[in-house]
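testing teh design pipeline on a random one, pls ignore if ur not involved
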């Protein structure tokens, strides 16, 4: 047992020493960079500053695109959940929708009747509706969900 504990301590102390050396090396590199930076020309400092600004702008743009994409995916999921709830509701209630006469059903109806759960809508600021009609060529209902949330609105959403 003592030999095992001694090996663990030795491994741990080696690991700590390696981390300390890496940290010291990084600090020394920054000190060396700062010393050389002070000695560099004004033109180099301007070019470096411009590159830093460009990198920051690129990172901000990439972050914004990533955030918008994940936001859109989240809201498309909500649209799909509303669509599934609407289909179940229409079939259960045997509502008569035709290609010439679209039904407009508010999302709250699905929540009130238990077809859609408010908890499944991750953005509680969302409200919306679906347009339902029966497509005779596809022999099925077509459902077009429209939602309006704090940071997202489905294309074609109309306020009534």
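output:
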């Amino acid at each position: 047992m003592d030999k095992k504990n001694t090996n663990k301590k030795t491994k741990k102390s080696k690991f700590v020493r390696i981390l300390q050396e890496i940290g010291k090396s990084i600090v020394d590199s920054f000190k060396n960079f700062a010393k050389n930076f002070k000695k560099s020309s004004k033109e180099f400092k301007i070019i470096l500053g411009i590159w830093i600004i460009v990198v920051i702008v690129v990172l901000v743009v990439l972050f914004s695109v990533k955030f918008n994409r994940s936001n859109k995916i989240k809201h498309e999921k909500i649209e799909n959940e509303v669509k599934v709830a609407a289909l179940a509701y229409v079939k259960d209630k045997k509502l008569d929708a035709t290609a010439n006469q679209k039904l407009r059903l508010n999302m709250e109806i699905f929540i009130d009747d238990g077809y859609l759960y408010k908890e499944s809508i991750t953005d509680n600021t969302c409200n919306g509706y679906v347009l339902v009609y029966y497509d005779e060529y596809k022999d099925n209902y077509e459902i077009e969900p429209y939602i309006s949330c704090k940071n997202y609105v489905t294309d074609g959403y109309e306020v009534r």
